[in-house]
Design a protein that fits this description.
Layout (H helix, E strand, L loop, with lengths): L4 H9 L15 H13 L3 H13 L7 H13 L3 H13 L7 H12 L4 H13 L3 H12 L4 H13 L7 H12 L6 H11 L9 H12 L6 H14 L8 H13 L3 H12 L9 H9 L4 H15 L3
Helix pairs in contact: 2-3, 3-4, 4-5, 5-6, 6-7, 7-8, 8-9, 9-10, 10-11, 11-12, 12-13, 13-14, 13-15, 14-15, 15-16
Length: about 325
């Protein structure tokens, strides 16, 4: 099972909430705007970041990435690490601005210098891409020292792939388990454990454990849960990994994945549509919308970036 490179990079960057707030829990964005705008205009960095968020996410204002970037840059100039990460994210994926990996790296590096584990994990990704595995590991060591679970996943990947370290499946598994057992539950670590147990490697393949971890990951609302839901749905669609072929269950899990932002979940919905599967009437309109957008890279990238930006406020 191959994770799309772009979405994996995003997932490894942040442990992002991936489902929208319930209507009754939704904040009053007009009141939020009234709260933050005067402070932002007076020069408060946190307020400037918050105002940037509201423009980027369309909360209280019409979505406007130009305005969002202006406020992010004001906050970032004052050392707000979250604003720096937000700018790095937008430049990395080219949302609201022209894609520029060098600028993204510059903003992440500034936040990483503030000992921000999210940014440190991102810097590890850049080092890994440059095949500077020693630096990648050093960045991860700083992030895992702060109990940042996504960095533990990245460390596990180094050992699983043998990237700058001896390939060691047992050590990879140890890091995935460490991430999965953090007090703050993390779907990405559980996802990687599930995928790990589904592979043929030096650790005995165990489809039952693989599905148990994937189910746990799917039940959460952090990055990785969307891919776990899709993976289970895909296995039901094909009748693989010890699961029976079952279109109804394939649909249910694919819908969960698509709702959480999985383009692959939408791809399963499209496969079901092509095979003549009858979508339940209550979900038909939404299922067809996602199925028809299964190949719209920009749509799914935008959703993923917005969800990740949302997470920065936590």
């Amino acid at each position: 099972m191959k994770i799309h490179t772009t979405l994996l990079a995003l997932a490894l960057a942040l442990a992002a909430p991936v489902t929208p707030a319930l209507a009754e829990d939704a904040p009053n964005y007009i009141e939020e705007m009234k709260r933050w705008q005067p402070k932002a205009e007076a020069g408060d960095a946190e307020a400037q970041f918050r105002l940037g968020q509201m423009y980027a996410l369309g909360h209280g204002f019409k979505q406007n990435f130009n305005s969002a970037i202006e406020w992010y840059e004001k906050a970032a100039a004052q050392g707000n690490a979250k604003a720096r990460i937000a700018l790095g994210l937008l430049y990395f994926f080219g949302v609201g601005v022209e894609e520029n990996k060098d600028k993204a790296r510059e903003w992440y590096e500034k936040a990483a210098a503030q000992n921000n584990p999210v940014a440190q994990n991102c810097m590890s990704w850049f080092a890994h891409q440059a095949k500077d595995y020693a630096s990648a590991k050093q960045w991860l060591e700083q992030a895992v020292a702060q109990d940042y679970a996504p960095a533990m996943v990245s460390m596990g990947r180094l050992y699983e792939d043998g990237a700058g370290v001896p390939q060691d499946f047992a050590e990879a598994k140890r890091w995935y388990e460490k991430g999965a057992k953090q007090k703050k539950e993390n779907a990405l670590s559980m996802l990687m454990l599930g995928l790990f147990y589904s592979k043929e490697n030096s650790v005995e393949k165990d489809e039952k454990q693989a599905m148990e971890w994937l189910e746990k990951a799917c039940s959460l609302d952090t990055a990785g849960s969307e891919f776990a839901c899709y993976t289970i749905g895909d296995n039901y669609f094909y009748g693989e990994s010890g699961l029976p072929q079952d279109d109804q269950k394939a649909f249910a899990y694919a819908m969960k994945g698509a709702k959480k932002g999985s383009q692959d979940g939408a791809r399963v919905l499209q496969k079901l549509k092509e095979n003549g599967f009858t979508f339940p009437s209550a979900e038909k309109e939404q299922a067809l919308e996602w199925a028809n957008k299964f190949n719209d890279e920009e749509y799914w990238k935008r959703r993923a970036v917005e969800q990740t930006l949302e997470s920065l406020q936590d």
